[in-house]
Amino acid sequence: MDNLRLWHKFLQTIKSEISPVNFKAYFLKTLLKSTLEDKIILSVPSAFILETLNRDYKKLTEDIFERIVGKKVMVEFNVKEFENPESKEEDFFQPVQTQTSYLNPKYTLENFVVGPTNNLAYAAAQAVAQNPGTSYNPLFVYGGTGVGKTHLMLGIGNAILSKHPGFKITFSSSEGFTNDYVSALQTKLFGIFRKRYRGVDVLLIDDIQFFSGREGTQEEFFHTFNELSSKNSQIVITSDRPPYEIAKLEDRLKSRFQGGLMVDMQIPDFDTRVAILKTKCAQQNNILEEGCLNLIAASVETNARDLEGKLTQILQSLKHKSLEPTVENVRALLGKKEEAKLISLSPKQVITQVCEYFNIKQTDLTGPRRVKEFVLPRHLVMHILSEQLNLTVEKIGEILGGRDHTTVMHGRDKIKKLIATDRETQKILIEVRQNLSTITY
Ligand code: ADP
Ligand code: MG
Predict the structure, then answer these.
(1) Domains of the chain by range and CATH?
(2) Ligand number, closest to the Cα atom of 117
(3) Neighbours of 66 (CB within 10 A)
(4) Which of 23, 104, 124, 357 pairs with 155 at a CA distance of 20 to 30 A?
(5) Residues in the chain with pLDDT < 70?
(6) Which ligand sits closest to the CA of 101?
């Protein structure tokens, strides 16, 4: 068992044996630093935590490791080396509400499935993991929701950590960075903040698009960025869109982000989806035959997160109903797709939901005005009424204020085309369908 897996197993076990509050306070920011023959060294974020761990949790920690590895082990807690003396007091009182997340060892480059829609991003991640700070800096990964950006980013972090256990790595969402910065401003304690974001070898910032419009944060991040890159510390950034499409982002940041390597990730194709399902099954010790995986992969075309959700849902249904995991049973469970449910809706319900979603009036939707705010919802309704409710284009035209059937065909096909290429439309359609499927129950 490698260290990452060992640590992950340990966390899973101890999580179920102590209170969530204590787990979070004492173990979430603790890391497995090294394993010697019968000694395990854990690195902890502060002297305060060290004291508590030694006093209250040493025995339990040793017991759990013993259960996992099957032999007696000694556990030693150490405070992380980058802890410098003048910051101890700050850490002790923990004045800054830190939003920095823990580097979840579950997401690795090894269990990231590579396919044609993510292979460039993966190759870049490998290069960065092997030579942090020197190959591509920053690495800027962008793509729609659920395509694997956060997984890849954590994979980079975990790979670097296992190769260089002493490296200081900070992983944070852009909101985390913002919140930490605001807390630092309020408490006037910049020591911890600067140490966390500037005193590192690797900085991983997730979902940077949320920097949009936040001037103070952007200014601080600009300086953070410059300091890190001048030290050749690796910076990895993810975003749901490329820098030039992020509104209200300073030009100097855009140009910094574009100065390294930008790679995009897209929705996984069918074969990759099957492979992802295989990996997820294996991780949870579940076995589903290829035929079942193919069915599930074919039923979810949106993204890897939805795919995983569907897998979990099918596995749970099989379990609850005590069904064998056969192709027939999986097919039957999948048969109850949202499409099948949506057909029972009335056109009125669809129109109401879509208007609600876009916050427009029904008379705007059925009326003659061709402004952008009304046209997309109108086309969307045409698409749903045609594809999901199987209404004729003539009927749809009639419902939508007496429009010609060719107009309806045009609107329906427009959405069809957009879904294939445009992330925003994909997202809207998924959300609207979700809203609709909740009223069919
Ligand atoms: P994003 O950050 O792009 O929204 P995530 O990284 O959170 O997406 O991925 C969503 C889920 O899908 C995660 O559980 C992740 O492990 C899984 N996933 C996405 N892409 C892959 C992949 N290529 N291989 C394995 N798992 C993946
Ligand atoms: Mg993410």
Answers:
(1) 3-87 (3.30.300.180), 119-265 (3.40.50.300), 270-335 (1.10.8), 341-437 (1.10.1750.10)
(2) 1
(3) 13
(4) 23
(5) 81-101, 336-341, 420, 438-441
(6) 2
Would the CB of 150 count as within 6 Å of ligand 1? yes
pLDDT at 439: 67
Q: Is residue 279 in contact with ligand 1, taking CB distance under 6 Å?
A: yes
| Token digits of residue 288 | 């589903």
pLDDT value of residue 94: 37
Question: Best substitution site from 106, 150, 151 to test ligand 1's pocket, by max atoms within 8 Å of Cβ?
Answer: 151
State if residue 43 touches ligand 1 by the CB under 6 angstroms criterion. no
Q: What pLDDT score does 97 carry?
A: 33
Q: Please name the residue whose Cα sits nearest to atom 1 of ligand 1.
A: 146
Residue matched to tokens 């103070």:
216
Quote the pLDDT of residue 340: 52
Distance 151 CA to ligand 1 centre (A): 5
Provide the pLDDT for residue 256.
96
User: Do 379 and 414 form a contact (C-beta atoms < 8 A)?
Assistant: yes
Q: Which atom of ligand 1 is nearest to the CA of 143?
A: 3
Residue with CA nearest ligand 1 atom 19: 148
Q: Are strands 31-35 and 39-44 parallel, antiparallel or unpaired?
A: antiparallel
Beta-ladder partners of 264: 142
Dist CA 116 CA 384 (whole Å) = 30
Crossing angle for the helix pair 215-230 and 251-258, to the nearest 10 degrees: 40
Q: Ligand 1 pocket, 113 CB below 6 A?
A: yes
CB-CB contact of 371 with 365 (8 Å): no
CA atoms of 330 and 291, how far apart (whole Å): 9
CB of 147 shorter than 6 A to ligand 1: yes
As separate numbers, helices (DSSP H) first and strands (DSSP E) second, the chain gives: 22, 8
Task: Give the torsion through C-alpha atoms of 56, 61, 62, 66, to 10 deg.
Answer: 150
pLDDT of residue 89: 33
- Whose structure tokens read 């109108």? 378
